[in-house]
Structures are given as structure tokens and as C-alpha cells.
Design a protein that fits this description.
Layout: E1 8-11, H1 20-31, H2 37-46, H3 48-56, H4 65-79, H5 86-94, H6 105-112, E2 117-121, H7 126-136, E3 142-144, H8 156-165, E4 173-177, H9 180-188, E5 192-196, E6 217-219, H10 222-228
Parallel strand pairs: 1-2, 1-4, 2-3, 4-5, 5-6
Length: 231
């Protein structure tokens, strides 16, 4: 029996296995050179969770992440005093599909896959996450995109939906993330949790990587998590 009886490792993607700041700020610098690309990328990311929460609250109809990102991109561009044409908007939204993995991510996933099923569990769509995986060499067994259940984390349907899809109990799934709020939600629905430090996630802005004593594991990166799990 492996650690805690965990059969499935479910990974957050944006920030946990990929470096969204470097990828998106780089795309902004190329496509909208007249703005501060770092500030623009951070402000766009800050609008990510609020619009997903509006969907889950029923204020907005369910739409794919690309559509929501297009809406928040328009807002951010307006706040920065720029107007983006359709081609620029599409290029920036699709840049989320090719953000780089953290240096340890692909190898960490490969090692963790030896004894367990490894899955992306993300608010991105299956198509987006497939592109991301191919770009970075992520060897997922399963890609759990939000369009499978038409809900966004931290909704119950996402965490428990993956467990149901794989025919395992929630406590046989461990959520792996660098965002404690994601892990708190997962744990509230019966999943195990592992926190992964990503101090550079916000491109130099401070980030709380203390995690929580309620997590089952706390790792400095995915290779460290693999060592702790005996992989």
C-alpha cells in the first residue's frame, strides 16, 4: 500500500506545474510592447479567480476558460489604456496553452507516475491542457479539464468528479497544488492534499508558501514530493 492509500495524484496546473508569469509576461511583451508586461500579466491573473467565482455563483453562465480569459483580458487592456484587436487577443489567450513548465515538473510527474495515476485537475479545458502537456512533456494519465463537469474549482463537482471518473474514493485522491485555497477545498470534500512551494510564481512579488499543517505533505518541488512518496 502506498502512502495514505493514495491511488491518484491530481495536479493543479497554472502555477503548480507551470510558470504562468514568465509565459504570459513574455507574450505580453511581444504583443503589447507599450505596456509594462509584468504588471499587465499579474493584473490579468488577479482577475482569474473572481470571474470563475461569478460563474460558480450563477451570476454568469458557464463558459470555457478561453472565453472568460478573453473577457478579463479586455478589462485589463482597458485599464492599461490599450485596445487589442481580435488577433492580438486570441494570441494572448492562447499563450496560456504554451506557458513553460517549472524545471522539475515533467521529471517529477514522470517519477510520481511510477506507482500512481497522475492527472491534471485544472480550470483549463481538456484541449488547453492537452496543448500544455504536449508543449512541456507532461505525461498525464488523465486530463481533467473543467469542460468535463462544466464547473470550476473550488466546486465539489471538480474534485469529486475526478474521483468518480476514475472509480476511486475521494480519500484515494491527493490534490497537489501551490495554492492553499485549492487544497482546503479539496480536503473539505475528502481528498488528501500536498502543498508545493513556488516562490517565484508571481515573478518576484511575495507569495505565501507556508502551506498548512492540515496538508498531508509539504514539498519544495515535485521532485521533493516524489522523494517523500518513495518514487
Amino acid at each position: 500500500m502506498n502512502a495514505l492509500g493514495v491511488k491518484v495524484l491530481a495536479f493543479d496546473t497554472f502555477g503548480t506545474v507551470t510558470d504562468w508569469f514568465t509565459g504570459i509576461s513574455g507574450a505580453v511583451a511581444l504583443i503589447v510592447p507599450e505596456v509594462d508586461s509584468a504588471d499587465f500579466a499579474r493584473e490579468w491573473r488577479r482577475r482569474y479567480s473572481p470571474i470563475l467565482a461569478r460563474v460558480e455563483a450563477g451570476e454568469l453562465p458557464w463558459r470555457r476558460l478561453d472565453d472568460l480569459q478573453t473577457e478579463t483580458l479586455r478589462e485589463v487592456a482597458g485599464a492599461f489604456g490599450v485596445t487589442l484587436d481580435a488577433e492580438q487577443s486570441r494570441a494572448l489567450v492562447r499563450a496560456w496553452r504554451t506557458i513553460p513548465g517549472w524545471p522539475d515538473a515533467a521529471e517529477g510527474i514522470r517519477r510520481l507516475k511510477r506507482d500512481r495515476i497522475v492527472c491534471a485537475l485544472s480550470n483549463g479545458t481538456v484541449a488547453l491542457l492537452t496543448d500544455m502537456a504536449r508543449h512541456n512533456g507532461f505525461g498525464w494519465d488523465v486530463i481533467g479539464g473543467s469542460d468535463l463537469w462544466r464547473h470550476y474549482k473550488p466546486a465539489r463537482e471538480t474534485y469529486c468528479g475526478l474521483a468518480e471518473l476514475l472509480e476511486v474514493r475521494p480519500d484515494e485522491v491527493m490534490m497537489v497544488a501551490t495554492h492553499q485555497s485549492d487544497l482546503d477545498a479539496a480536503r473539505s470534500f475528502g481528498l488528501r492534499t500536498a502543498f508545493v512551494e513556488r516562490p517565484a510564481e508571481w515573478g518576484g512579488e511575495p507569495k505565501d508558501d507556508s502551506g498548512s499543517p492540515d496538508n498531508d505533505f509539504h514539498a519544495t518541488d515535485l521532485l521533493d514530493l516524489a522523494r517523500q512518496l518513495g518514487c
